[in-house]
Design brief:
This protein is mostly helical. It is built from five helices and no strands.
Length: about 110
């Protein structure tokens, strides 16, 4: 084991080809393995105005008179996406392939089934 000042140890490492520092790349977080939010989905579809990004909320922002602006409501915008509204669930599509109709009922209400 070598002893001495830091400068002497670095010189000894350089002479023997040993690195004295380590490069650790910064990891950028992405969407892999994560759920997308309403804002991300609407942005990908072109429904979001980037210049007004801070105005979007779940129920929509309010103007000076307290009236909700539906064009900033994520729920309202998503409801206007026809393919989301009419998309079949996996259960429904499998039932269609088998020749049966799957009628959905609300959760925890087995009396409606």
């Amino acid at each position: 084991m070598a002893t001495g000042s830091l400068k002497a140890l670095k010189k000894l490492c350089d002479q023997n080809g040993m690195p004295t520092s380590e490069y650790i790349p910064k990891i950028q977080q992405g969407w892999v393995g994560k759920q997308k939010g309403l804002l991300q989905i609407l942005w990908e579809r072109g429904w979001v105005d980037i210049s007004r990004l801070g105005k979007y909320t779940i129920d929509g922002s309010k103007d000076g008179f307290g009236i909700k602006q539906l064009d900033t409501s994520l729920k309202f915008l998503m409801a206007n996406c026809v393919d989301f509204e009419e998309e079949e669930s996996l259960l429904q599509s499998m039932g269609t392939k088998m020749g049966v109709i799957i009628d959905r009922t609300p959760k925890c209400h087995c009396e409606l089934a």
